Structure formats: structure tokens, C-alpha cells
Amino acid sequence: MGALDFELFTSLRYDPLLTTLPVNTEAWDSDVKQSSPFYMLFYHRDRLLEAAEHFGWAEIADSLRGPKGFTTLLKKLNDGMANLTQSQSPLRVRVLLRHEGSSRIEMNPTTVTTAASLFPNRIPPPKSAAQMKVSPLTGGVLTVGDGDAVHGDPPMGEAWDVLPDSQRVKPSLFTSYKTTSRDMYMAARQRVGIHDMAEKKEVLIISEKDGEIMEGSLTSVFFWRNGKWTTPPISSGGQIGTTRRWALEKG
After folding, report:
1. Given the DSSP bridges, would you call strands 161-164 and 201-206 parallel, antiparallel or unpaired?
2. Which of 37, 88, 161, 194 has the fewest CB neighbours in a 10 Å radius?
3. pLDDT tens profile 28-85
4. pLDDT at position 82
5. Per-residue CA distances from 61 to 38, 133, 168, 175 (Å)
6. Would the pLDDT of 164 be above 70?
7. pTM score > 0.70 for this model?
8. Is residue 175 within 8 Å of residue 184, measured between CB atoms?
9. What class, spelled out in words, does domain 161-244 have in CATH?
10. What string of H, E and C letters represents the secondary structure of the chain?
11. How many Å apart are CA 250 and CA 243, to the nearest integer?
């Protein structure tokens, strides 16, 4: 595929709620740290930078590197959304970059969510794994029981149908990094009968290399294994996601 046939992109959330959450900008450099309505922007900058470096897009990589590059990206977002700075409605924002250095921003409405969903204190274990344990000394509950919740847990939503792809996908830079070349994902969704982006269904992308699950077509995936959550390693070839990175860093 030629260098001009696709764009690099990242999708992030714009939400006024985020300006009240210091955790959203804790990764920012101290000289630029401020409240921001852009979700995990520092991680999204890193994702774009890493993709540009791996594809050899030197001009794009240079424009994103370091504190100056981050400030440039932030200004690009602020300028592109100048007419929406007072908006109280959350938006899904896509930043798209081309090889020669041009960029564009797309915006679409997205659903309202909670602070606990954006920055959970933990990912609750599946109900089948939760067990009530009582301290023999105090009689107090040490772990929550089935269906119980801990303060800061994200609210439980409607369950999705998760379906394995019937074919295998070859890992590549196009599966590790977000680009507009997404035929492999659309084909996987069609094979399992997902025809509408609004459907509460997801397909698991499976590597042709060793049959390892790489990711979902639109999501990062986590599995409950041996009493803890785990996610496919970068070596599987799946997306190097931003929320995935945050979750790993937070343990």
C-alpha cells in the first residue's frame, strides 16, 4: 500500500466532565499541565507519534515529538473545536494525519458516561469469580460478593455478544496502529454478521501466526485468568491501545 493511500488516526473523547478530573492530565508535562476536556490526550499523542515513527513518516513524527509536539497537538484540537468550546455534550473526536503533514479533525456525538467509567479504580471481576470471604478475627467482609460493588467501580452496562472470527488475520503495522486501512476489521465484522456499528456485538480478531486473540474490531480485550485480568501482549499484533496502556500502568 502506498504512503498516500491511508491516514494515521486516533479516536478520543471530548467531555467537559474531564476538566474536573485531575487524573486525566496527570501524565502531562508539568509546564503544560492544565485541565482538559480531551480524554487521555498524552497517550493519544504517544500513539500517533509511535505510529508515525514505525511507518517512517518523519515529518509527522517530528511535529509530535516532545513537549512542543504535544502543545502543537493540543492547539490543533482547540483550534479545530473552537466553535464547541462551550459545548456540554460529549463528542467522539478523530484526529487524522497524512504522510505529507496535513491533518483534519472529525467530530460525532457520543454517549454520556460517568467518571468511574472513564477512570475506574478497578475492573470488577466477573460475577462468577466473585466470592464472599469473611475475616475470622473481625467478621468483616474482605472481598465483595457476587453482584456487589466497590466505590469507584464503573456501573454495569448491558452485556455485549462477543464472537470469535471464523478466519485468521495477519499481524502487521496496520493491526498494531490505527490507520484508515481497516478492511481486515470490517471483513471480520461481516463474517460474524455484525452490520451496524450500533449493535452491541463485537468480534475477536485472531492471529494467523499462532491462533492467539489479538483484540476486538473496535475494542481492547481483557480476560479473567488465574484470579486476575490479563490482556494480549503487544507481540500478538493487536492495537497498542491508550486505555489498555493506562490500565496496565495502573495495575
Report:
1. parallel
2. 88
3. 987 777 899 999 999 999 999 999 999 999 999 999 999 999 999 999 999 888 776 5
4. 78
5. 21, 51, 31, 19
6. yes
7. yes
8. yes
9. alpha beta
10. CCCCCCCEEEEEEECHHHHHCHHHHCCCCCCCCCCCCECCHHHHHHHHHHHHHHHCCHHHHHHHCHHHHHHHHHHHHHHHCHHHCCCCCCEEEEEEECCCCCEEEEEEECCCCCHHHHCCCCCCCCHHHCCCEECCCCCCEEECCCCCCCCCCCCCCCCCEEEECCCCECCCHHHHCCECCCHHHHHHHHHCCCCCCCCCEEEEEEECCCCCEEEECCCCCCEEECCEEECCCHHHCCCCCHHHHHHHHCC
11. 10
Residue 132 pLDDT:
47
Residue 148 CB-half CA count within 13 A = 12
How would CATH label the architecture of 8-114? Answer: 2-Layer Sandwich (3.30)
Check whether 212 has a pLDDT greater than 80: yes
Query: Would you kindly state where each structural domain of the chain is located, as residue ranges?
Result: 8-114, 121-154, 161-244
Q: What is the greatest pairwise CA distance in the chain?
A: 67
In this prediction, residue 1 carries a pLDDT of 46
- For the record, the C-alpha cell of 145 comes out as 460478593
